[in-house]
Amino acid sequence: MTSQELLYEGKAKKVFDTDVPGTVIVEFKDDATALNGEKRGRIAEKGIANAAISSKLFPLLEAQGIPTHFREQLDARRLAVDLLQMIPLEVVVRNRVAGSLEKRTGLQEGTVLDKAVLELYFKNDQLGDPLLNDDHIEVLGLANSAMLQQLRIQAMKINTILTAFFAQRQLILVDFKLEFGLRDGQLVLGDEISPDTCRIWDENTLKKLDKDRFRRDLGGVEEAYHEVLTRVLS
Ligand code: UDP
Hints:
The chain is α+β, with helices and mostly antiparallel strands. It has helices at 46-63, 99-105, 134-139, 145-167, 212-215, 221-233; strands at 3-9, 13-18, 23-28, 31-34, 39-42, 70-75, 78-82, 85-86, 89-96, 112-122, 131-132, 171-178, 180-183, 186-189, 198-202. The protein contains 6 helices and 15 strands. A hairpin with a 4-residue loop joins strand 4 and strand 5. Bound molecules: uridine-5'-diphosphate.
């Protein structure tokens, strides 16, 4: 497979076309942004950690019946994935209070939620990725109710699988963001699963091992990504 023209460049990844129809290459960068792009920086070897973590987690999900875009890891920073028709929604699943849920509810960070909370945000930089309800999503034509129902079921199943996987490694999956797309009309998980898109805490110390270290200038960012990588591969 040969990499061809750059199709898209996002904040943390580049996507290249290939000579194989329906397959694209995702390249993970070290660039990091936060606060809607206001804060910018680099996290050394983040791309390598995130490519490896995603390459472990997508097959884990696939093996348990979740269709994903993942095909293979090509090298340290690059994955071959199926080209999806992306749904412009950020699907957030939360097991504990953190980030915007803390602000929205006033609940203390770390509070365990009685049931997992699912939120849908419009992936739209100009609008600042607003929270949407199902009616908003339908009238905007982003997804119909059957698709939304399926998306919720998949996201909750993914939460069950990932929570157990991280728990076996003494890690708490606090919350995470997923993006889905369509492949031949079928709902498929795309994007990445990494400390950029998940909040992950050490079970014993509750130390943050994710992008919050960058967002909040906590230091030890590279080490945190490396720690997650080591435990995910163990
Ligand atoms: N998240 C993400 N991309 C975004 C927004 C959120 O990957 O554009 C992830 C974030 O890392 C966290 C979860 O989604 O694991 C919930 O994020 P939250 O709504 O609390 O927003 P934040 O505090 O990150 O702005």
